[in-house]
Amino acid sequence: MVRKKLDVHGIVQGVGFRPWVYNLARGLGLSGYVLNSSSGVTVEVEGSPEGVRTFLEEFVSHPPALAQIDDLVVSEMEASGDEAFVIRHSLAQVGVAQEGGGREGGEHAFALVPPDIATCAECCADFTDPKNRRYRYPFTNCTNCGPRYSIIRDVPYDRPATTMGEFEMCAACRAEYEDPGNRRFHAQPNACAECGPELVLWDRERVLERGDRALGRVKELLLEGRIVAIKGLGGFHLACDASNDGAVRLLRERKRRSGKPFALMARDVEAAEKFCWLTEAERRALLGPRRPIVIVRRREGTGVSGEVVSLEIAPGNRTVGVMLPYTPLHHLLFEDRDEFLALVMTSGNLSEEPIASRDEEVGPRLHPLCDYFLLHDRKIQTRVDDSIVRVFEGRDRVLRRSRGYAPHPVDLGVALRPILAMGGELKSTFCLTAGHYAILSQHIGDLENLETRTFFEETLGHMKRFFRVEPEVVAYDLHPGYLSTQMALAMRGVELVGVQHHFAHIASCMAENRLAGRAIGVAMDGTGYGTDGKIWGGEVLVCDYSGFERRGHFRYVALAGGDAGVREPWRMGLSYLLDAFGEEAWGLDVPMLREVAERKLRTVAAMIERRVNTVETSSCGRLFDAVSAVLGVRTEITYEGQAAIELENCVEAGVEGAYPFEIVEGVIDFRGMVREMVRDRGTVGEIAGRFHNTVAEAIAESCRRVRKSDGLSRVCLSGGSFQNSTLLERVVGLLRRDGFEVFLHARVPPNDGGISLGQAVVANAVAKGRMRA
Fold it and tell me: What is the pTM assigned to this prediction?
């Protein structure tokens, strides 16, 4: 007889791992045990050499579908003569002596918390089967699906350490939970209508319905054009009938969201294809267990009717964000195929606030937005908004990393010091490092109000506890006005490392792709504080993790009015016109000069000339704003990036050619482009196409020059401007044609939601350098 011990680390809790191990061992006639620990899963197996060898082969090659084994240590043990294989109770704390020998600690003294997973096909079959005891039960789940991160209070992941600990299982659920042959064996959120959470429908003052009757009444309200707040997996959605133009407009008015697209939840893929075009890769993204919002191309001509979605969903936009049902409650909302093709499912919040997740938030935060509230009594421990992805080159590219993804770690392949990276100001996330893992938080939002700061701090507290991390180093953005920077600088007893914004972007891309050594970094975005005190955003860098050199950038142009210059793109349009034409700009025949009042134009021109309340910027985002305004596409915006998004939507297919530009000592000068663009008598779509071509060619030429001087052929593309798929496609095409190896983001957002990862790896390199010095 032989006995082996397996210490397993990765996503191995909350994914049916222990029952799978139990059944595998029992099927091979082995004895021993499996348990959840605070650092993963521990297994000891004993039996014949052939049986143990087969167990190890199956263990490595066929783990459960949702599991991820990142590290496996196998050690020899003395045979102890166990008579059976059992599941032992989990250890509650790091450092508690393990049954079977040893103590926890070291690099892996934490467990990886699984993300929330969409309802599996077997559970869908359960709640749609009239003969099943869970028929129409909206909280059905098993070890293969359901809530995880959003309900976990502590690790190990056991029911008492979740918000489901408040619900005592009935005899039938308890029997499933304790039956190793049942797929609900040790499914911590296991419940049914007899013992689990219950729906309740409120108006502003009282309970209207409970249980299944509440669900039926909600569907009636939605069909009547009402707006309903629905408590879901990680927070509240605001829902209305996507085909009801009036309901969508009312929701825009109440949410103070005049132009930003709403996310849709379609009944199924076939329903989604009635109002959008889907590639096979986009279908896979929609149907996968993460169930993110997927940005897809909208079908033309799908206007207002009972069969298609309202044009008010995404005004001025060729794309729409779509997701499919990911909880039983969502599936049940669509059970009658004649009722809804799609529902608006937008975050339950006012613009720029974090998503509401607690019942006590309904009154102060959601009463102004809707008239009815579908609640349930399963508490949400950690709020988690919907994730957003876009498919590029057949691969999901995360734009907002949250439900289904967080807190899934990025395995860096090398161990880092315990680091907290604070991220930026917009699309905020933070990053903790533990061992060789970088663990990004879910999407926090824009750190512009008290509510978001509170969300940041409570999530940081959860994750430090889950992953047993007490940071020694804290990384932050150089911008002195960022709240995240101010929070970092107020911390005591830690080593502080400031990281330049665009350096963090490139380091993030390098880390995700596990690059070592130097690479060319192209960072294109709207705003980032430069080392010269100016606002950067169109940058060509040469980087390794310990530092960067700025080899090129867009020519500085004046940004007048600070934040007003972002809200009113015509200000940047005027700045670029004056920079390219001087006083001749006032006689130009461009739409912007006709649309904006001359008094406003002259005031801003005076600010630029006298350098009053202005700052110089090399921002790519502000260049896109300027062109959008000059062409009359968008002179004022109601949400971040609107001018650039609508400009991209104008681009006509198949447009070739580019405008002139110059590069002098690394500075990319677009004045020639602006002059030719204004004189171009083509359509707005043609001009927009040639503009995109020009920016792409300027980026490619800058990379060619760096390769010539430094011999580097690896290029990392990062920054929010690369969410523009037209620009990204053209830049990637040019670079690859010229023999560059191009690296992109996929698991981490290219926008500011990804810079915390870059800050972390840079801070680790800088801190190590300081120690050596």
Answer: 0.92
